[in-house]
Design a protein that fits this description.
The structure holds two protein chains of two kinds. By secondary structure, chain A is α/β, with parallel strands linked by helices. Helix content of chain A is 37%, strand content 14%. Chain A has three domains: 46 residues, no CATH class; 256 residues, Type I PLP-dependent aspartate aminotransferase-like (Major domain) (Aspartate Aminotransferase, domain 2, 3-Layer(aba) Sandwich); 98 residues, Aspartate Aminotransferase, domain 1, CATH 3.90.1150. In chain A, a hairpin with an 8-residue loop joins strand 11 and strand 12. In chain A, helix 5 packs parallel to helix 11 and helix 6 crosses helix 7. Chain A is globular, with a radius of gyration of 26 Å. The two termini of chain A are 50 Å apart. The relative contact order of chain A is 0.14. Chain B has three domains: 56 residues, no CATH class; 254 residues, Aspartate Aminotransferase, domain 2 (3-Layer(aba) Sandwich); 126 residues, Aspartate Aminotransferase, domain 1 (Alpha-Beta Complex), CATH 3.90.1150. Chain B has a seven-stranded mixed beta sheet with strand order 1-7-6-5-4-2-3, with helices on both faces. Chain B has a three-stranded antiparallel beta sheet with strand order 10-12-11, with helices on one face. Chain B has a two-stranded antiparallel ribbon with strand order 8-9. In chain B, helix 6 crosses helix 7 and helix 8 packs parallel to helix 9. The chains are: A alpha/beta, B alpha/beta. Chains A and B meet through helix 1, helix 2, helix 3, helix 4 and helix 5 of A and helix 1, helix 2, helix 3, helix 4 and helix 5 of B.
Chain lengths: 446, 478
């Protein structure tokens, strides 16, 4: 199939208007030896054939009845209206709103998104979003070096390992030095040469830091050093103290949990917020409210574009020019659909359900919860037999937890378990049963 | 003054609906046992809003927004083509949309990425692809970092890069993010790259290579493209292809054959995935054989046991994004290529160029066309000769009054008062004729009623907005 509208006669007529004799003549500037004979690609497909082909391919992926895997990508219930709204043509088939007057709908929606994020995080300003959590952290790292004119960063152990790798790639590009430190040595590593401390909370292993205390300790030792917090599942903000109340300078998060399906890890949403004083160093699009030049009404417009690449070229704060507009819209719809009551209750259910699983696992011989700090919906469990646990989960049609040695080879026999509101009691009992079976050689299992 | 605007946050009610909260089916523990109260938030300034109000609010907003489903969207270098609806269905298939990036049982996803990679290798003439980059600019950064790593490995100090003055703004900005400084190459009168300039630059010894888009932002195919890439290669440099303008080349000519070493694609342009109002995009990067080991990890290879991730290589630039890239977008692009097939892709290239040239010859009767020759996917007009101090911006705003969208304006920078027009292949002749008619009416208005243009638009939800005020006193949230 194709999506061309001209018949042969129309093409001939248009060629005549142009003053050429054939379609080939339109490519007269291309040297003959560069012209392609034919692409070696299969013949096109009709819509029903295409759908059948892709359904078959998708069926080679496994879908589970319930998931105990998180590690940067989470299963939360998505209200039906989220997909309905983002499927409205005025939103999903639009471009970046360059012509503000013909794009007021989207501009208002993203302004509302910025508002929702500032209210949720209590940060001063939020941008229109960046690609995802990992690149948001990398952009925050670079922004901190621009704001402080220093080229050294400290990362606190516990940041998602793939995020660390992304930060490493970006930093190498700009000759920025960084070091990963354990919490007990953090303060001793700080001095005036450090642009920022970056940390994750709740961290990759599930630990929730005492953020206010941590920030204060950093301020006491290095007052000019910026503090950057990252989060991979910001649904916890339904209950947890927001970063803006802990004096965080730059806050970033992966917003996938807010109404975006897992989709094999992308697209997600890079939530990006900061203190007002760093606004002009911020990467990415910003939507502002303004007035008609010659009238009474208010409206919305892309603003502070002099930070951006299409005006400033190599002097821009970042090369980023897309945001994740449609994902930002999805997260906005999620946030307003759940509302205050829903967001608080979802966070509470995540706390309660994972706490329940934690306590149950702790009673099974051979299992040990490794977290010493409070946790949200993820925690580390030392298991008597990891492979057997994974196998038992699969038998129960449960997506098994992460074997942490995938990222940390030294951490043997440990899984990172994720429990959210999407796990029903029945799913949870199945998981606990699977863990029991994997603890005792005598009962069932392989 | 009461505002004309009602934000969603003003539609809250005291009666909270619990439509989206599952019933709690386990006994609750004392919260303070789980999380200290000093860690908890005190207030939560978001209202509870009824579902019906939310749907009505955003349905109304969507009506106040132009999209490709509304009509022609002639933004130059943006390739706003029709987004096939079937791709939206396919990407939402549960076994695509509900899979976790770290799960086993991902063979369908890996096979899709691998097959797409094979097809793009054929379409572009490259030898390997990564799908990690989330957008075009992200692909550029990836590609430029590959260049950096390549010269680092060779122990060569090459910290400069050639970029033409007609380049997209992202090119210099991406190069800077990889630590390069930029040498701007001035285009000649024909809109092409002067060979002696790049030869001279390459002779200095510290230039890593060139970033080019071909056809360029004037819509011109550089006739000496082979000579350009040959010169760069002669001095050991690498050639980067900005794939933003690949659409007219589909099935016609391949960047690999032009002599390029690294390329990024924009799935949201050439391969019909929706722009979504500015994302999510996808910016895969392709490279020649010598550079395949430099691609970000993970990459996927086919084995007898199925599709697996490639082991780490020493050359790789590392990871550029979490997980596998924007898979949901990748699925749509794959479906698009399968649907069109070889013939369909070639037809895209041909008709995109036909439509652009048709508009070019009709519009140049009234408007100044600084580079008057056959174009490829787009062409650039200017406001030169327009009377009564009417500017390109005035013309753009007036187009909105006729219910259409405006071209890209004031870009490329090398044309003063530029209007950059790219109709794409999915416009009918009637749609193109209508655009010409609107442009001609506006041209007449520049002479007969200039005030109308200076104050346009009138038929949009708001009149012309004050951009200077927005920047001077930023109001970024309520």
């Amino acid at each position: 199939m194709d999506f061309i509208l001209h018949d042969k006669e129309t093409i001939a007529e248009m060629l005549t208007s142009i003053g050429v004799n054939s379609l080939e003549e339109l490519f007269q500037d291309i040297p003959a030896d560069l012209l392609l004979e034919k692409l070696n690609i299969p013949h096109g497909l009709s819509e029903p054939d295409l759908l059948r082909r892709l359904e078959e391919l998708s069926n080679k992926n496994k879908i589970y009845s319930s998931s105990f895997l998180g590690a940067g990508c989470y299963y939360h219930y998505i209200p039906s209206l989220v997909d309905f709204v983002i499927s409205l043509s005025g939103f999903y088939t639009a471009y970046t709103p360059y012509q503000a007057e013909a794009s007021q709908g989207y501009l208002q929606a993203i302004y509302e998104y910025q508002t929702a994020i500032t209210r949720l995080t209590q940060m001063d300003v939020a941008n229109a979003s960046v690609y995802d959590g990992s690149t948001a952290l990398a952009e925050a790292a670079i922004m901190a070096t621009i704001a402080t004119q220093k080229k050294k960063l400290i990362l606190l152990e516990g940041i998602h390992p793939e995020y660390v790798e992304v930060v490493k790639t970006y930093c190498w590009g700009q000759d920025i030095h960084f070091e990963i430190v354990m919490e007990d040595t953090l303060i001793s590593k700080l001095d005036d040469s450090v642009a920022a401390v970056l940390f994750q909370s709740p961290n990759f292993f599930g630990d929730i830091e005492n953020v206010s205390e941590l920030v204060q300790k950093i301020r006491d030792k290095a007052p000019k050093c910026l503090v950057v917090q990252v989060m991979t599942d910001p649904t916890c903000l339904g209950v947890l103290k927001p970063p803006g109340k802990s004096d965080i300078d730059i806050f970033v998060a992966e917003g996938q949990s807010f109404g975006i399906s897992p989709s094999f890890g992308g697209p997600g949403l890079g939530i990006f917020a900061s203190k007002q004083k760093y606004l002009r160093k911020m990467p990415g699009r910003l939507i502002g409210k303004t007035n008609e030049i010659d009238g009474e009404r208010e409206g919305f417009i892309l603003t502070l574009q002099t930070r951006e690449q299409h005006i400033r070229r190599e002097k821009a704060t970042s090369n980023i020019c897309t945001n994740q507009a449609l994902c930002a819209l999805a997260s906005l719809i999620y946030l307003v659909s759940l509302g205050k009551t829903g967001l608080q209750e979802i966070a509470l259910q995540n706390f309660q359900k994972s706490h329940y699983v934690k306590q149950k696992l702790a009673t099974i011989p051979g299992y040990q919860i490794l977290n010493k700090k409070p946790t949200y919906n993820e925690f580390l469990v030392k298991c008597p037999n990891v492979n057997k646990l994974i196998e038992q989960c699969k038998q129960e049609n449960l997506l098994p937890p992460l074997i942490i040695s995938k990222y940390f080879p030294d951490m043997k026999d440990i899984v990172l378990v994720c429990v959210t509101e999407s796990n029903s009691r029945e799913d949870i009992e199945k998981f606990i049963h699977a863990a029991q079976k994997a603890s005792n050689k005598n009962i069932g299992g392989n | 003054m009461t505002s004309n605007l009602t934000l969603i946050f003003n539609k809250g009610t005291k009666r909270s609906q619990h439509n989206f909260i599952p019933e709690m089916d386990i006994d609750r523990a004392d919260l303070a046992e789980i999380i200290p109260s000093s860690f908890q938030r005190e207030d939560f300034p978001l209202p509870d809003i009824p579902e019906v109000e939310i749907v009505r609010h955003y349905t109304e907003l969507s009506r106040k927004n132009y999209g490709i489903d509304s009509g022609i969207y002639p933004l130059g270098s943006c390739t706003m083509k029709y987004n096939p609806k079937i791709n939206e269905v396919i990407t939402r298939l549960p076994a695509f949309s509900q899979i976790h990036p770290l799960q086993e049982g991902n063979q369908g996803a890996l096979e899709l990425i691998h097959q797409l990679s094979e097809m793009l290798i054929e379409i572009t003439g490259m030898d390997g692809f990564t799908f990690q980059p989330a957008a075009g600019a992200h692909g550029e950064l990836t590609g430029i970092l590959i260049m950096k790593k390549y010269f680092e490995n060779k122990n060569l100090k090459k910290n400069k890069i050639l970029i033409p003055d007609s380049a997209h703004g992202t090119n210099p900005s991406s190069a800077k993010m990889a630590g390069f400084s930029i040498i701007e190459v001035r285009s000649n009168n024909a809109g092409e790259i002067p060979l002696d300039h790049i030869e001279f630059a390459m002779q200095q010894g510290d230039v890593a290579g060139i970033m080019l888009t071909n056809p360029n932002t004037l819509g011109i195919f550089d006739r000496q493209i082979k000579d350009i890439t040959n010169i760069i290669h002669k001095y050991g440099g690498l050639c980067y292809y900005d794939g933003a303008n690949l659409n007219p080349m589909l099935g016609i000519c391949r960047p690999g054959d032009m002599g390029f070493d690294i390329i990024h694609l924009n799935f949201h342009k050439t391969f019909s995935t929706p722009h979504g109002g500015g994302g999510p995009g996808s910016g895969p990067v392709g490279v020649i054989k010598e550079l395949v080991s430099y691609l970000p990890e993970p990459s996927i290879i086919a084995t007898e046991q199925g599709f697996v991730c490639r082991e780490k290589t020493n050359n790789s630039i590392g990871r550029i994004k979490c997980f596998w890239g924007n898979f949901g977008v990748i699925v749509r692009a794959y479906a698009y290529i399968l649907a069109l097939g070889a013939e369909g892709l070639k037809r895209v290239g041909q008709i995109a160029v036909l439509n652009a040239n048709y508009l070019r010859v009709l519009l140049k009767e009234k408007y100044h066309l600084p580079y008057d020759r056959i174009c490829q996917h787009e062409f650039v007009l200017s406001d030169r000769g327009i009377e009564n101090n009417i500017t390109t911006e005035d013309i753009a705003k007036r187009i909105l009054d006729y219910g259409l969208y405006a071209p890209t304006i004031y870009f490329p920078l090398i044309v003063k008062g530029a209007m950059m027009i790219e109709p794409t292949e999915t416009e009918s002749k009637i749609s193109l004729d209508n655009f010409v008619e609107v442009m001609n009416k506006i041209y007449n208005e520049t002479k007969t009623n200039p005030e109308l243009l200076k104050n346009a638009p009138f038929n949009t939800p708001v009149k012309r907005l004050d951009a200077a005020l927005a920047a001077r006193k930023p109001i970024l949230h309520d």
